[in-house]
Amino acid sequence: MILEVAILDVKNGLEIEFEKNFTLARQYISAAVGYKGHSLRKCMERPSRYILLVDWENLESHEVGFRKSNEYEKWKALLHKYYDSFPTVEHYQTVHENNI
Question: What is the pLDDT of residue 91?
């Protein structure tokens, strides 16, 4: 499993609208093959910054399966207009994990 980490800087004043549309858009990402779950978190120090964490079965599930799908086009139409700059997206693999 891999973790996608996306830093989302939303245009000032559009945070509430972005969050509402994210609620609609999540149906598209969660329908993707290889999707395992996600979390959207808001930065406390910078209220226009969010971090999106998505667990994927493998890198191809995100990069090919989701990003080349019709669902991604719907996701993009709902959310990309809110970004102040295009998100930084990176993928991580687990080296060590300790669950409490």
Answer: 97
CATH of the domain spanning 2-92: 3.30.70.100
Could you give the CA distance from residue 76 to residue 79 in angstroms, rounded to a whole number?
A: 5
CB count in 10 Å sphere of residue 13: 8
pLDDT under 50 in the chain at which residues? none
The two three-digit tokens of residue 87, written as one number: 């998100």
Task: Count CB neighbours of 84 within 10 A.
Answer: 13
pLDDT score, position 12: 96
Give residue limits of the domains in the chain. Answer: 2-92
